[in-house]
Amino acid sequence: ADIQRQLEGHIIKQLHRTAHELLGALKNRCWLAPPPAEPGRVYFRNGWYSLEDGSFHPDIDAFTFYRVAVDFEPEAPAPQQWLDYVAALLDAEDIPTLQEFCGYALIPTTRAQKMLFLIGNGGEGKSVAGAVLMAIFGQAATSGRLHDLEERFGMSGLEGKLLFIDDDLPTAKLRETASVKKIVTAQTPILVERKGRDAYPAQIYCRLMCFGNQLTDSLYDHSNGAFRRRLILTTKPRDPARVDNPQLAEQIIQDELPGVALWMLDGLKRLQANNWKFTVSEKQRQQDLRLFAAGKRGKRTVQRVVRHE
Description:
By secondary structure, this protein is of the alpha/beta class. The chain has 11 helices and 10 strands. It has helices spanning 2-7, 15-30, 80-89, 95-104, 126-137, 178-185, 224-228, 248-255, 257-273, 282-295, 299-308; strands at residues 41-44, 47-50, 56-57, 115-119, 141-143, 163-166, 190-192, 200-202, 207-212, 230-234. The strands form 3 sheets. A 5-stranded parallel β-sheet has the order 5-6-9-4-10. The protein has a 3-stranded antiparallel β-sheet with strand order 1-2-3, with no helix packed on it. A two-stranded antiparallel sheet has the order 7-8. A hairpin with a 5-residue loop joins β2 and β3.
C-alpha cells in the first residue's frame, strides 16, 4: 500500500501490478540468509546472556529469530506471585521439571528431545502459565492445536519459534504422530511446506508444551520412541477453599516477568549441567510406567490411571 501511494500520480496503467513487482524487487534486495542458531546464547530484549561463562552482553545489533520479549535483569526480585502459583499447581517434586522445560525453551536446540504435557481435571489455573510464557517469549512463541501440526502445512508456523503452546488439548486421537516426533527430536533440517511454495528444508527448534484436562489419544502410543519423548506432569487437585484471582496472569506479566525469566534461566542451567536430562520425580517415573503399561490395554485404562493420579 505504501509503494502504491508513492506511485500514484506518476503511473496510470498497471499501477497494482507495478507496485507488486517493486515489492518483489525490494524483497530480493533486502534478503539475508537466515541467521545461525546459537544454543550457547539466550537472547533477551536488551542483549544476550552467555551460557558458557555467565556473562551478559548488552549488544542487541545481532539479528536472531530467537529473542525473547523480556529484559535481562540480574537483580530482579524473586517472582513471588509466580512461585506461589506454581507451588499451588504442582507437587514440589514436579516443579523442577517445569522449571527446566521452560528454561529449555529459551534456546534453539532439541538436545533434550522432550515435549511437556501438563494435565489436570480443570479449574487448576493451567492457563496462567500459558499466558505468562507467551508474554515472555513474544514473537518467538506461537500457539495453536497440537493436532494441526500433523496437517500438510502444520509445521510451517514453527519455523523461527522457540515455543509452541496448545492450552486446550483435545482428546480426539491424532491420526499420525510422525511430525510431532520430528519436531521434538530433529537435529537436521526437515521438509516444510507452505501454501503456494515447494517444500523446502528448515531447521525447527520449537519446543511443544500442551495443557489439557485429559490425555489426548496421541499419548496412548506405547511405542518406546513416544514413551521416551514426553514429560507428563499432573496438577494438584484444586483446593475447594481457594479464592481465584482472575487477574493473576496480568499481575505476573506486569510485575514479575524479569524474575520469571531468571527462574527459567536457572532451570536451563541445571538441565545443561545434568547433560540435558530432566529432573524426573519418583511420582512421574511411576506414573509413566503405569501409563506405558496401560497404553497397551486401551484408552479407558489410561484415563483411569490419570484420574487416579
